[in-house]
Design brief:
Number of strands: 12
Structural class: alpha+beta
Order of helices and strands: EEEEEEEEEEEEHHHHHHHHHH
Shape: globular
Bound molecules: fe (ii) ion
Largest sheet: 6 strands, antiparallel
CATH architecture of the largest domain: Orthogonal Bundle
Strand order of the largest sheet: 3-4-5-12-7-10
Helix content: 25-40%
CATH topology of the largest domain: Hypothetical protein af1432
Length: about 300
Amino acid sequence: MNYNGLLIHNNKDQDGLDKVTLDNSELKLIASGDGVEVMIQAINANITFDIYPPEDNAPIMEFFYVIEGQVEYLSTEESVLINPHEYFYTKNLTKPCVFKALTKVKLLYVSSQPVFHFIGESLTELHNINKEIDLKDKYTRGHSERVQNLTIKIALQMQLNRDKIASLALAALFHDLGKIFIDDKILRKPGKLTFDEYESVKLHPENSANYVKKIKYIDVSDIVLQHHERIDGSGYPLGLKDDKICIEAKIIAVADTFDAMTTDRPYRSAVTPKEAIDEIKRLSGIWYDPSVVEAFILTLQKDGII
Ligand SMILES: [Fe+2]
Ligand SMILES: [Fe+2]
């Protein structure tokens, strides 16, 4: 209700001004004026999310109040728990920050500059493509989220810096977007692919890289482009060797392989985590970076998987 410029929003009207719904989160714009935006963000349990420094170092303050649930600030220095009724905010942020929703979380999110449509536009499109790929290929359903989770754990184990972890989180989630262009018949083919079919699969890193260029505030296209490169130069699309492949792509390569091997595929059934690890270990130093393989094994040990 609007009382001469005083706007009262009762519980019965839950819609807000606008809403962006992604797979595991929802962002609702509930008030805006003079550039300031007030939002409610709901995030599912075990989902990581990031706050990025503004483009062009614009002065912006972003404030988050935990209404419900528990959030962990992931950092290589120390991890901090943020509980209901506690808050965090950024002012002149210089590096991206990564957080994890430990439970289902509801946040009050206030930004001193408009961010809602900016976040909405680029990410909604990419999330929708991920959803479409999950529908196209039931074998890889949930693959991107699992790869993202494992990738972040490996990166934390390797003590990668915060900006790298934030880039990785996005790159891992969207590494296979380019699969949207691969013919369904090829994705679901039970047997070996023909030369031409394999050639069309090999185009997906480049197509994924083009998609993520739409994310305006961070460039993760090289990471995405290189996720099928192998350190002996036998990968694709460029056949890059060891030191030409970025560390983030090397981490995704291991997490991606592990997830692919331990889930059923049209051409073979899943192998056990132990078998997958043995295979990855065998190829350590040939396809995979040994330092990544080592961190990967430590991560799985910590998680009690091996
Ligand atoms: Fe891929
Ligand atoms: Fe993948």
